[in-house]
Amino acid sequence: MEAGQGQEETVKSRVVKVDSQESWDLFVSQANSQGNPVVVHFTAAWCMPSVAMKPILEQLASVHQDILFLSVDVDEVKEVASKMEIKAMPTLLLLRKGSQVDKLVGANPEEIKKRIDGFVFSSRALIN
Predict the structure, then answer these.
(1) What is the pLDDT of residue 5?
(2) Nearest to 60 by CA among 101, 100, 115
(3) What PANTHER family does UniProt report for this protein, alphabetically (predicted)?
(4) What is the pLDDT of residues 74-125, one digit of tens each?
(5) Are 66 and 110 in contact (CB under 8 A)?
(6) DSSP state of 75
(7) Residues 6+ apart with CB under 8 A from 87
(8) Which of 103, 79, 85, 89 is nearest to 53 (CA)?
(9) What is d(CA 52, CA 58) in angstroms, rounded to the nearest whole number?
(10) pLDDT score recorded for residue 6
């Protein structure tokens, strides 16, 4: 890579925003077919703890590039929030093969990191 290359580019979010039921279905089915685990952040623009979690999830997404990180605004994509039985924000769901394997309610960065690290470890153990 040449020196200075890419400095003009804006940093692209590694957390993918889900904007409809259709995009949710597409992202989750693609992750399933590729064998990638999924971390879903259910958020709301008015929920300050949810907003505060965004940079933490971005950082985790850049570290764990084999996981698909999704963000779902519960007010914009009510069908998905309802289907996944989300009652409070922020809620993080960890999905493997389309099934929920863990759920964490509340903004607790250390616990989120710990759970995602454990999730990654167990996902890799299943592959090997």
Answers:
(1) 44
(2) 115
(3) THIOREDOXIN, THIOREDOXIN-LIKE PROTEIN CXXS1
(4) 999 999 999 999 999 999 999 998 899 999 999 999 999 999 988 887 776 6
(5) no
(6) T
(7) 105
(8) 89
(9) 11
(10) 44
In a domain, 1, yes or no: no
Q: Look at the pTM and tell me if it is higher than 0.90.
A: no
Q: Which parts of the chain fold into alpha helices (H)?
A: 21-34, 48-63, 78-83, 109-127
Distance, CA of 14 to chain centre: 9
In a domain, 47, yes or no: yes
Domains: count for the chain? 1
Asked, for residue 68, whether it belongs to a domain, the answer is yes
Give which of 104, 94, 112, 5 is closest to 56, Cα–Cα: 112
Percent of the chain with pLDDT over 70: 88
Domain that holds residue 35: 15-127
Please state the rounded mean pLDDT for residues 30-50: 94
Q: Which pLDDT value is given to residue 21?
A: 96
Q: Evaluate whether 76 touches 87 at the Cβ level (below 8 Å).
A: no
Amino acid 114 reads K
Here the CATH number for the domain that contains residue 75 is: 3.40.30.10
The mean of the pLDDT values for the chain is 88
